[in-house]
Structures are given as structure tokens and as C-alpha cells.
Amino acid sequence: MHKGLILLMILLLSVMLVVSCGRKGKDISEMGAEEAPAAEEAVSDADDMAEMAAMPGADAGELWNFITETSPYTEWSYWPDYEGYQPGKSPHGAILRVFVDEHGMANIADDMKSSMDNGVVIVKENFMPDTTLAALTVMYKVEGFNPEVGDWFWAKYSPDGTVAASGTPAGCIGCHGGVASNDYLFTGNVGGDVEEEHEHDDDEKYED
Known about the structure:
Elements: H1 2-53, H2 60-70, E1 77-78, E2 86-87, E3 95-100, H3 102-109, E4 121-127, E5 133-141, E6 152-157, E7 163-167, H4 170-176
Antiparallel strand pairs: 1-3, 2-3, 3-4, 4-5, 5-6, 6-7
């Protein structure tokens, strides 16, 4: 009788121990599932920081290397609804192609965005009527570079990468200032109404 009672107590203790361990295991499993999104967000944030650290500074040479070697712009997407060769106007050439990096594409997809984020790069190929590439003109958003004009860094290159103009060219700012409400962009609709891209009366003034 005494031995039977002892065995019964041992059995009950064993059952309680198994149930307790099962509950703890479940709690740990659930906690891991709850913490997984936070861990994923941390990894994503780290990736974003590393990506931004790899971006060029407000420097035409660094920017050229970025768009031709680090992240070749020809592998980016065309600006939505502006795919392939498009008719152009002075001062950007008779024919154009406009590419935008993944950051810019994400901004375009976000209807709530009123301006492009820092790090966005837009490349415009400027062609002659016979489709000979005449120049590349680039807009690159650099935090704190020039807040008065949306922090855009402008650059114009010959096809071999020779810098024709960079930084804050008066011609670029004078022209794009007309669409400041659209984050200085003629193509698409970012933050306001966009007037049709216009031809300048004085091409030499805007040759940059």
C-alpha cells in the first residue's frame, strides 16, 4: 500500500514535469515567432545602412563610377510609362531614355510620397536624331547637399565619362526650378502638377 502510494506520487510528478516542459517549449517557440519580424527588420535596416554607405558622395567622378560599374544604370528600370526611346527636346537631345534606380522606383510606387528619398539616382541618355549617344545627364539626391533645390546633385557627362558640368549648374536649376513642386522632376508626378517638358528659348543658357 505504501509502495503503491509512492509510485502513484512519482507518476503524478512525472506527468506534471512533462506538461510543464511542454508549456515552456511552446512559450519559447511562440516567443521566437514573435521576435522573428523584429529580427528581419533589423537585418533589413542593416542592409539599407550598408547600401547607403556604399552610395557615392556629391562628386561627379564617384557618381560616374557608381552608375557605370557599381550599379550599371542600364540594368535599372525605365521610368514607368516612359519605357525605351522617347522623343526629346532641347537641351536633352532629340531622343531620350530615362532610367531610375530601385530606390526611385520604390518612391514612385508609393503614392503618398511627395518627394524622392535621399540616394535616388535618375539617369537620362541624350541622343542625336540618328540615335548616337551625345551625353548622359544625371540627377542624384544627396542629403544636405543643396536643400534650397531639393538636395539634387546634377551632372552631365560625355559618353566616355568626361564631366561637362556637375553640382549645381545654373542651367539645370533654372530649368528644373519650374517644376519645384514636383521635386524638380519633369517626368512623372511626384509632388505636384507637371507641365509638359518645354524647349528653351536660349539653348546656350541651358547647355549644361
